[in-house]
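User: quick one
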Amino acid sequence: MTYASKPADKAKDGSLRELLSFRVGGQDYCLDIMSVREIRGGTRATPLPHAPRFMRGVINLRGTVLPIMDLATRLDLDTEIERDRSVTIVVADNERTVGLMVDAVSDILAVPEGDLQPPPDMKADNERSFISALMIVENRMIRVLDLNAVLPPPNEDAA
Amino acid sequence: MAEIRASFFIECEELLEALQDGLQAIDDGVADADAETVNMVFRSVHSIKGGAGAFGLDTLVAFAHKFETALDEVRAGRLKPDARVLKLFFHGSDILGDLVRECRDGLEHADETYAPLLAELERLVPPTETDAGAQAEIDFQPAPLSLDLGFGTADLGAQDDEGAGFGPDDFAPAVDGGDVDGPVARGAETAPDDDAVTAAPVYRVRFKPQSVLYAHGSEPLFLFRALRDLGPTEVRCREDDLPGLDTLDCEHSHIGWDLTLHSAEPEKVIRDVFDFVEGLCALEIEAPDAGAVDLIAGPIAGPIADLGLIDLADLASLSDGSDPPDLADISAAPETSAALLAGPSGDAETAPAPARSLTPDSGPAAKPEPASAAVTSPPDTPAKPVRTAPATPRATVRVDLERIDRLVNLVGEIVINQAMLAQSVKAEGLPPNSPVRTGLEEFLQLTRDIQESVMMIRAQPVKSLFQRMSRIVREASADIGKEVRLKIEGEQTEVDKTVIERLADPLTHMIRNAVDHGLETADAREAAGKPRQGNVTLTAMHRSGRTVIEVGDDGAGIDRTKVLNKAIVNGLVPPDTQLTDAEIDSLLFAPGLSTATAVSNLSGRGVGMDVVRSAIQALGGRISITSERGHGSTFSISLPLTLAVLDGMVVQVAGETLVVPLSTILETLALTDGDIRALGPDTHVVNIRDQFVPFFDLGAELGYRDPLASYSAGVVLLIGQEDGPAAAVAVDVIEDQRQVVIKGLQDSYGRVPGIAAATILGDGQIALILDPIDLVSMASGQTRHRGSPAPMSIQPDQAKGVQA
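Assistant: Done. Structure below.
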């Protein structure tokens, strides 16, 4: 698992990173805005048989088949938000395009690289592997999602 | 540069295809001595050579050159393309193809693979060409022409003698702009007595190119050739403007030509020849008059030969008086002229002679070469339509497949959108004849047309695939020493490109099987009263919305006793089974069965038809066999027209909509209580006409729900292939049967077991397309440990009432 030390390395760099922040399972997360393709309202996904629990299924995104991942389930978080009112963030990572189901999209943040801290080394916490950095914005801790870790490698699900 | 190189190799593939076509046509005898076909073959090799030279692919050039030289012998009529020669040529074209691919992929050439062939090819070319040429010159008789022009004196168009003996005292040889090494003499024949020429009006053309004409890549030789195709032409060089050697500027055009043309064509046609060089030359065309022309070829000063204009200079003295002015045939000439003008210079020596009619008795000796103008053509021969088919290829565009896929996607999207729109218009409650709904109807029609046209773009004729197969036949038959003839039919049948690509392997296997197992040895054939040469037929056709490809042979047919015995020995069927012929035939698709007693290089290792069948099934196809003892077998593959669209049955199970490929459904049944019998704790079988078929609940298999207590109200789909039902699958409701656009899951998500792909329904929702065979095999492994069917599920050949 990559610990994504990138933000720490660039801590002296004053350049701004734009991040899309959202809530999922009652926690604040954000993603590099460059990996976000679009934000959609929730659509009913067609479930895939034999898929991991966090794969909600597939939806029709203008003619392409888009897999939808329930991020709360993926991160092992509880969520009280009804799934029908959730929002899908379409993210693209190299060749893969996946929809992430989140509770709500909050804001776009412009954060200096220096404000990003590497996550503390806590081996017990499984969740940490999905987080590449942390930061404090208006007294809230916002986790920067490690998209690479969240997206299952291609064909992982193919039994 | 890389791009040009890539396009050269693409062109090579096309040329190789044309080469194969041509050889096949000659082999089939439909074009025994058809000049145009021989020319086409020659031209293909020549163009490959030319291109290869430009890219410095020396091996390729060397081979193509030898090959071309041998082909030229045929073209010149000195070599009859008999079976032996053709076999060499076919082999040559195979190797040429290999070399092209090796060059493309930057692989090493294995010289030894083609060295023996080269030697054979060389043997085809007589070593004493020069002598033969000289002989031909002597034999050459001036054509008696009553027209008072006397151009018989320079009646030498038949010589094709590069650079040799060039001079005023020599018979002016016609040089063909070519690069055939060494003088290649045409076995010239004398022109026929033909007085018809007298009727032709005489044009005088004065032509002097400006330097810029050459700069533009134009070539007077082609113009003259084109003129010659219109009628007998004398060309005379005017070197008046030629400066002395000391002041000569080689970069400039100095020479001009006077041409005298006997042609019945209107002046416009003659002007058209010069269309492309208009403004680049000084051109005067004198309308017909009866003035005599003196024909003595002007001596040309030596230096010109050094100008690199040697072809032109040579041509200046070319006179072609012996050309039989079979004017009735000339109608095709203008196109040819245009083609010549536009044609790349690499084709210089292969100018076709479409305006000639070959009489049957002129036979293979008739020469295609325009320069060797003395094709016998008695005046009474009616004008035979020129075989223009290969000469006029339809215009095509090369498009990246990805772009087409995108277009297909978008069109699929329009179709879905349109369905959604129609739904909402309906929901609005507009009357059926309202303008909106009428407009929508038209829109619907249009989108369907667009969809169809887009699908057509992806379709390609199976020709390229079939040509590869003809090579397989040649190699396979050579390997095992059988004489085999491959007959190809319907090669223009169009199939989706991806299908073609994925058909190559199974088809190769089937063809090899036909040659190896299907056909008997020549002796056995003779004993059976058949010709020694075996026939393998490869046929493609469209039949009721599917593509059918058949591989047939006229061999011994399937030895069913042998197959059955082998199957029993291999434990595929119990020893005392009674099987119908069709059932035995289908045993051939069982893994681990080969009836060839000896394992040959080609086949007999037992990996065979089962692999073929699964490959065909993966394409959504079916394969079946018909065989008659003593008369041969035919394997028939039936494929969907495209992989982009699928005929499916839309079903509902556990609230989800799914699509089941129609090709896998044998039958649909409504269930009654008594039909389902328990077999073990969790598994059930269905009794269908006294036959027990494994039973699955689709909803449970896909994890959508727990197995139901009762399926009595449900519907089952009988899933299976030709050899019988493999399983009965319960669904809740059958909704519809329709064509769906296939959307791959593979790229976006990965493979899902039991699911082939996805599609988008009219409401914009995604529905999964089942892969029932996969699903059934998976389910068999998971839920039934003992109940898995026999290795081959052989079922009585009951009426398969596919409700389609």
